């Protein structure tokens, strides 16, 4: 049944996150390193402040052993330093910050929150949303389509407020999105060797285990690239299950065919033996009949001779 095949994944969870929660996940994920294991298998080490593409590669290198595959959802740029929200007056004019070729307007409130508002005011043009974690964390610029992000910081004030260095900082398409994890439908729990490793791949804090949700073939769609990726994985899992089942059935069929062939050969041998037995009996009966006929004829001949002897004796006496 199609409801019994698919994958376990955190994709729907990630896709349904609010902008603030997605930014938090991206920030947590970016700030931690992979330094231990997943499902008992050692992962290639990936340092802190490293794009998710390296973490996806680390996971996929051992996917056949862990049972977990990964790909990236969306894209993001995370600032190298905390955005400044201390209330200090740092004037920012229109164009001091340029995102994807679009100038961000003047910041009327000289705080990181004010800069976040100014960036989000042009998000329809840049395709980028900003979140500074309430002024207490690194600035995250992100999108859900996976497009490349480029930021050009032109003044020291913009650098201080945003947390990005002066000059151009960019991330290639899909290079630093949220890590989507997928595994077998029958096993939805994943376990990392450390809290930090799970945070680096799942963006969550406070634990080393996570639960993936079931995504069956019947619940999938291909409305976006990432949904299509999950659908492909689910269908691939279904095909693998079908292939495995066909292999098992093929093996059973081969055993049946072998048994049928053996029984057919045995039946043919029995038929041949029966024919030989019947042929041997026919010959014996024929021999017995011939013997009886010879004995009968010999007896008749002897009786005939015996009857003729007295007549011969009388002839001599006459």
Structural topology:
Layout: E1 6-9, H1 11-15, H2 19-31, E2 37-38, E3 41-42, H3 52-61, H4 63-66, E4 69-73, E5 75-82, E6 97-99, E7 102-103, H5 112-121, H6 123-126, E8 129-131, E9 138-143, E10 149-153, H7 156-162, E11 167-171, E12 178-184, E13 189-191, H8 195-202, E14 209-211, E15 213-216, H9 225-317
Antiparallel strand pairs: 1-12, 1-15, 2-3, 4-12, 5-9, 6-7, 6-10, 8-9, 10-11, 13-14
Mean pLDDT figure: 83
Oligomer state of the chains in this structure: single chain
Query: How many beta-strand segments?
Result: 15
List the uncertain runs: none
- Largest β sheet strand count, sense and barrel closure: 4 strands, antiparallel
Helical stretch tally: 9
Shape field: rod-shaped
**Helix percent band:** 40-55%
Query: What is the C-alpha radius of gyration, as a whole number of Å?
Result: 45 Å
Tell me what portion of residues adopts beta-strand conformation.
Answer: 15-25%
Distance between the termini: 118 Å
Spatial order of the strands forming the largest sheet: 4-12-1-15
Helix-strand makeup class? alpha+beta
H/E element sequence: EHHEEHHEEEEHHEEEHEEEHEEH
